[in-house]
Predict the 3D structure of the following.
Amino acid sequence: MTATVTTPAARGGRRLTKKSVVPWLFLAPGLLLALVFKFWPMAKGVWLSFFDVRPFLGDQWIGLDNYTRVLTDHRFQEAIGHTLVLGIGQSLGAILLGFVLALLLEGQARSLKFVRTAVFLPAVTATAVVGELWRLMYYPTSDGLINSGLNLFGLGPVQFLDNPDLALWSTMAMGIWIWAPYNMVIIMAGLAGVDRSLYEAAAMDGVSLRQRLRYVTLPAIRPALSIVLTLAAIRGLRVFTEVYVLTGGGPAGSTEVWMTRAYTLGFTRNDIGGASAASVVLLCVTLLLTVTVNNFRKRGDVR
Amino acid sequence: MSAPAIDPVRTTAPKPATRRSGKARRTTPARFDTALGWNDRPGAAWALRLLLCAIALAVFAAPFLAILSGAFTRNASGSSLSFLPHDSTLLNFSVAGERGIWDYFSNSLVIAGGGLLLQLVVCTLAAYALARHRFRGQAFVLTLFMLTMMLPEEVIAIPLSLVLGDVPVVHLDLKGTVWGVILPLGAWGFSVMMLTEFMKDIPDEIEEAARLDGVGELRMLWQIVLPLCKPALGVAGVLGFIMIWDQYLLPLIAAKDPTDYTVTVALSVLRTDPEVGSGVVLAGAVIALLPSLIVYLLLQRSLVTGIAAGATKG
């Protein structure tokens, strides 16, 4: 190893000096992998979305036909509705429940730490495992786990996953179960940052608990909440594994979301062009949403 | 109770050198410690909290007991799922073994081990360049890595499966090999971002002193920077493992036939097998669950820190 003495002012100009090459050597593996397995597929997806992809026959340029086909397909249109209902319901439910959990489990006691550890389990469990677990908990006969619980209250066996009117809500319940503990951790980090003396001051002013939550706690955890909301919104749009494992889009397409539809189109029906167009639409919406939310956040931070 | 536990006070982003000045002195009574003003003394509020905690445990943790008990129950079916095993047996595991669950499991371990190693190396190298060097195009590279977070497997699944079948330039077919899953996991924007933020906080004086001693780039990274980054590496490792173990679509599209599946994907193979009951599926679920559970319980603090840090850094 030779000594490389750094003098801040010494810039190599346009020549390739050792100093200017070194960072790129360190970046090379990461950039290469990102290029080959992220950006190239993305570019290829955009490219293919304008073609009628025919293996062995050669692809044929068909312009925007894939897009019009996908966007006018009624199953995709239904999937948009399901994706929005699932995404919004799941996000809001998980944030609300996460907030309640954070308020409930905030504290230093040993027993509380134990409860927190146990409650967080769903968030670290692989989604596929959670899906299998919930399929069994939703077992449709009266001695299924949840149904036997309902039985105690005299409620009949519910066809959670086989009833087209109910399957989407059952999927949403599982999503809330997965993400509420995750949100709890983020919100709890926000709660830990609240100035304790504010609570004391509020108590001296004789402020009610509701006002204390409204005017002291909520403003303090607003950044945490906005992050949770952003993450949830983006996640909600591209939801795939939960639905695919739990219902596979059924029954009768009642839980079909955008990505399960694109997956079926691409891998089962081999319509690569149409599936690519669907993915590009999703990508654009995701990027748009991210940029918008980030702008809002920046504006909010400036005050 | 010696289980490691989520500690909300430590859930701020890990920072080297800047420790919190002294120990926060308790100046206020306990009832000002929490947003809801929970009291330690037994009473109506205390009883209510106990009840709510019990409900939370029942909702979020009890289903895991159901997995365990079902996996050890003879002839378990979805309809007889309960919290305590009856007629306990290891039969489910041996049937799952016959269906190749251990092969799937070893696929998963190879992918998780190799993928995590690759991810940590690649992300550390990139973060070192981004944090400790100044060069033309730095902001652009940072944006690129940020973009990889916007490109999850789901969105690029269809073209990615084509790329895996025929990698550009070198024309390799990665499908059916573990590389088809490992390589796409290598560049993870989150790890790069987090490690970069962390490495930026290492004081320049340490680096300058080392350079005067004639320390080169690789030794600088290995002997000076990395030892100071241990907490961040821990976070990247735990979150990376959980993220890789959670992969579903990627192993699915990278597989050539079902023997290439990871254990999480293989669960649905077990489920659709008409000859095995739910007990066997649950045995598979236990096997798929254990590694992430162990990692979580051992390295919980890093995990929680990471989630909170990822949240505050965006």
Q: What stands out?
A: The CA atoms of residues 207 and 224 of chain B lie 8 Å apart. Chain B touches chain A through 117 residues (CB under 8 Å). The two ends of chain B are 34 Å apart (CA to CA).
